[in-house]
Amino acid sequence: MVFFRSVAVLSKLRSRLAQQSTSLASARWFQTQSAADLDLHSQLKDLIPEQQERLKKLKAENGKVQLGNITVDMVIGGMRGMTGLLWETSLLDPDEGIRFRGLSIPECQKLLPAASPGGEPLPEGLLWLLLTGKVPSKEQVDALSKELHSRSKVPDNVYKAINALPATAHPMTQFTTGVMALQVESEFQKAYDKGLSKSKFWEPTYEDSMNLIARVPVVASFIYRRIYKEGQIIPADRSLDYGANFSHMLGYDDPKMLELMRLYVTIHSDHEGGNVSAHTAHLVASALSDPYLSFAAALNGLAGPLHGLANQEVLLWIKSVVEECGENITTEQLKDYVWKTLNSGKVVPGYGHGVLRKTDPRYTCQREFALKHLPDDPLFQLVSMLYEVVPPILTQLGKVKNPWPNVDAHSGVLLNHFGLSEARYYTVLFGVSRSIGISSQLIWDRALGLPLERPKSVTMEWLENYCKKAA
Ligand SMILES: CC(C)(COP(=O)(O)OP(=O)(O)OC[C@H]1O[C@@H](n2cnc3c(N)ncnc32)[C@H](O)[C@@H]1OP(=O)(O)O)[C@@H](O)C(=O)NCCC(=O)NCCS
């Protein structure tokens, strides 16, 4: 079957032969060991049995251990603080922010391979880390880059499906349509229809996930060029890594923009499992819907203004500040504008979070990028002013649990600086990055045999009666 990777099988066979043979063959053994080391699928295949055992043991020995109480507030309050999901690839601490397989963002910036020494992490490295829990070597990352290029061909039906929409359709609508059109090539669906044992579910999920990750930048840049650049498509440059090639296909080749895109794709990839897009994908995939169906569902959640669309809203809002008050805005004027926004019933986009209670480290690393590469950009200076002005005002409201900026408060001004100024498109960039985190977890969902998700719901009447009895 297509999804069985010949490399792993071949390398094992060759290695056995080589061990029995001459010194010349020993050299071949070394090469083939390296080939398996460089192959992400082989690495996963080795890892999965031990993680399956780990989960089995956890369930057998601790299945009845209580994780906390569920309150009525949690049930009617969007399940805040309710621990209810298994998500291996990342974990969010309210104060410290996200850790990808245990590594904070600064640690990822230090440890993951970069295009050049001291540069931003390559998203392929993050993908490797999320899937295996191990920091890859530069050679492993380069091999993965090549693999993603080799999987990146997008079938014609995808372009046709997108072109069937008016160019005025929101970029996220076009993106979800493109992902749904990619689904016709799902290996998981084909394999499942033929009949496949549960222990093998992860293999075609891996194939779909890697194909999806490889293809979404092509689809996303097609949409960008279609809407904003008169349909002039820029072909992929196979000499470039994932993030740089994405930026190139969008039409942005400034080396600093390539670095920004590597950082952007890395930090937006995953934010544990409970956020709307990640949770949606996990839920939909639990019905054994394939990765394309699951990811398209996630994108529809990402397109909401309280989630991924906030990055669009932030830049539009910042531009509206400049339009109304000019670029040399004073602190007092800015405070008035924030109050005006709040008094009109709107939220201040880019501030607040469902889980975080401090400044988002994804904001901080973007701020550091700006300080290094665009310190004099007027919109960056406005973003810095907002960092001073907004938190005290939100605190004054008395109800906002986290007055600090999140990831979306910063990304727009960076992209805008390098010419990517079309704010309505920004959530698509977020979506491309999310394909990495979401797909990594979906592979583990199937490898660990996680079941159909089906929490219990109740009515208000049920809650009232329960509380009466409990009183
Ligand atoms: C992210 C967000 C949806 C989290 O929601 P949450 O978990 O319900 O947040 P809280 O518990 O702090 O909300 C309590 C109240 O403060 C309000 N609040 C939270 N953040 C706010 C903000 N940035 N501006 C104005 N009001 C805000 C909420 O709307 C809510 O008001 P309500 O009780 O009248 O409905 C919320 O902070 C928000 O809307 N932020 C702006 C949009 C954004 O940046 N989204 C991207 C998130 S990564």
Give the distinct bound molecules. coenzyme A
Specify the helix fraction band. Answer: 55-70%
Shape: globular
| Low-pLDDT regions | 1-33
Indicate the CATH topology of the largest domain: Citrate Synthase, domain 1
Give the second-level CATH assignment, the architecture of the largest domain. Answer: Orthogonal Bundle
Instruction: Tell me the radius of gyration.
Output: 23 Å
Structural class by SSE content: mainly alpha
User: Mean pLDDT, nearest integer?
Assistant: 93
What is the helix/strand order?
A: HHHHEEEHHHHHHHHHHHHHHHHHH
* CATH hierarchy class name of the largest domain: Mainly Alpha
Total strand count, please? 3
Major sheet summary line = 3 strands, antiparallel
Count of helical stretches: 22
Distance between the termini: 60 Å
CATH superfamily of the largest domain: Citrate Synthase, domain 1
**Total tally of structural domains:** 2
Question: What share of residues are in beta strands?
Answer: under 5%
Widest beta sheet: strand line-up: 1-2-3
